[in-house]
Amino acid sequence: MNIALLAHDNKKKLMENLCVAYRHILCGHELYATGTTGQLVEEAINVPVHKYLAGHLGGEQQMGAQIAHNDIDLVIFLRDPLHQKHYEPDINSVLRLCDVHNIPLASNLATAEALLQVLDSAKGSESGFTYSLNANADQGQGQGSV
Q1: Phi, psi dihedrals of residue 145, rounded to the nearest 5°
Q2: How far apart, in whole angstroms, are the C-alpha atoms of residue 38 and residue 49?
Q3: 122: confidence class by pLDDT, cuts 50, 70, 90
Q4: Do the domain assignments include residue 37?
Q5: Is 48 helix (H, G, I), strand (E, B) or coil?
Q6: For residue 69, is it within any domain?
Q7: Ordered alpha helix ranges (H), 1-146
Q8: pTM of the model
Q9: Does 140 fall in a domain?
Q10: SS3 for 23?
Q11: How far apart are CA 108 and CA 110, in angstroms?
């Protein structure tokens, strides 16, 4: 699976700690991150991370393009809703893309841990997550049928 990692400045240490705690799961997947977050994670867990530009330099848009092309399977975006700085990535574009493309998204530690645990327990199956519940529901949207 391709896992995207993003973190606001005040959450970068938390992301680093999360990745250390779940290294045994993350090392079996391709990791993608914005600049500084990717560097911190790579150094902390000694696993290669595909790094984009820093979020405020376009890294968030690079990540968004990969989400839009369904090249990302899971997003962990640890955000700081109380102290976001103007130059930090805006969560709304990532949220919207994940919703549109049905990509699992964790925006806090509890959800990130839950998704990683599910991913670990599903490692024997073809895909870590099942989207079948919404597959038929999404096909009928926008067709004007009653």
Answers
A1: -85, 150
A2: 6
A3: confident
A4: yes
A5: coil
A6: yes
A7: 12-21, 23-26, 35-45, 59-68, 91-100, 109-121, 132-139
A8: 0.82
A9: no
A10: helix
A11: 6
